[in-house]
Amino acid sequence: MSDVQQARSRVARALTIAGSDSGGGAGIQADLKTFTVLNVYGMSALTAITAQNTLGVHGIFNLPLEAIELQIDAVATDLGVDAVKTGMLSQVPIIETVARKIKQHNIPNLVVDPVMVAKGGAKLLEDSSQQALIDHLIPLATVITPNLPEAEVLINREIKTVEDMKEAARRIHDFGAKYVVVKGGHLEGDALDILFDGQTFEQYVSPRHETKHTHGTGCTFSAAITAELAKGTPIREAVATAKEFITCAIRDTLGLGAGHGPTNHWAYNNRHKN
Ligand SMILES: Nc1ncnc2c1ncn2[C@@H]1O[C@H](COP(=O)(O)OP(=O)(O)OP(=O)(O)O)[C@@H](O)[C@H]1O
Ligand SMILES: Cc1ncc(CO)c(N)n1
């Protein structure tokens, strides 16, 4: 096979820059599982190690900046990256380092999941870091995927209705992200997400499943968008696939753990079977 043929047929590659969740439902583990199910080659740069299960976060250990930088350098200079997502980046220097590295390596298709708080309430982003996300990372983002509490923090305003979600999307778009997806998982009623491209809104709706097993839904959703962007899928279709992926993963629960259990990453591939 010629080099050109090889380049055309090679697998899409995605990198996740995020924290490790020992429980496997969120963070790096959720991202790599999602990439694999969507047929994308997954790579990781860990920013922190968390001791975590379905009941809560029992410890957070941020990694040294040098360890974060070297992981990104190693991957970008050899294997190559078609799309990248960021998850837990708890401190200002980590955010600055990651933003600098993404720029330095010219990594395309950045999905920013502005992770702030774990399902059990533990803080994964220090308060002093919120502004650094706005200043350094969001302007580089192809897509940013805040949930409602995260969007409220970013725009410093309450969000109670779909109109509020749209206004939040407008304001977050003004921070410099190309596309904004405001996730409505925390509202009542159907699970409604909104995509804004700076001009028009697109809505993605699925029935709400009454379940406590929603640990890592945001990580999985943004990882699915990243995987699709790595393959070259256009944004509207990428978000539609991610919505279907997370809906299946929440619906076909694994029922693990005594608290907020993980979602089912295999469910998307089994969706047409009985
Ligand atoms: N109970 C539910 N039933 C169906 N879809 C849901 C439910 N909860 C969330 N979703 C969907 O899951 C996706 C993730 O949204 P959510 O707002 O839960 O993210 P998140 O709060 O960032 O998750 P996490 O912090 O656990 O990673 C969205 O597409 C949302 O609409
Ligand atoms: C490591 C990690 N990243 C993100 C989340 C948010 O779900 C979590 N609970 N843990």
UniProtKB/TrEMBL annotation:
Q: Which family does it belong to?
A: Belongs to the ThiD family.
Name of the protein in question:
Hydroxymethylpyrimidine/phosphomethylpyrimidine kinase
Q: Where is the Pyridoxamine kinase/Phosphomethylpyrimidine kinase domain?
A: 21-264
In what pathway does it function? Answer: Cofactor biosynthesis; thiamine diphosphate biosynthesis; 4-amino-2-methyl-5-diphosphomethylpyrimidine from 5-amino-1-(5-phospho-D-ribosyl)imidazole: step 3/3; Cofactor biosynthesis; thiamine diphosphate biosynthesis; 4-amino-2-methyl-5-diphosphomethylpyrimidine from 5-amino-1-(5-phospho-D-ribosyl)imidazole: step 2/3
Give the catalysed reaction(s), semicolon-separated. Answer: 4-amino-5-hydroxymethyl-2-methylpyrimidine + ATP = 4-amino-2-methyl-5-(phosphooxymethyl)pyrimidine + ADP + H(+); 4-amino-2-methyl-5-(phosphooxymethyl)pyrimidine + ATP = 4-amino-2-methyl-5-(diphosphooxymethyl)pyrimidine + ADP
Alphabetized GO MF terms: hydroxymethylpyrimidine kinase activity; phosphomethylpyrimidine kinase activity
Query: What range does the record give for the signal peptide?
Result: none
For this protein, the record's CDD domains field holds:
HMPP_kinase (cd01169)
Q: Which InterPro entries match?
A: HMP/HMP-P_kinase_dom, PM/HMP-P_kinase-1, Ribokinase-like
Give the enzyme's main class according to its UniProt record, as a single word: transferase
Name the keywords, alphabetized.
Answer: Kinase, Thiamine biosynthesis, Transferase
* NCBIfam families cross-referenced by the UniProt entry: HMP-P_kinase (TIGR00097)
Q: What is the lineage of its organism?
A: Bacteria, Bacillati, Bacillota, Bacilli, Bacillales
UniProt gene name: thiD
> Domain of life here?
Bacteria
- The Enzyme Commission number assigned here is 2.7.1.49, 2.7.4.7
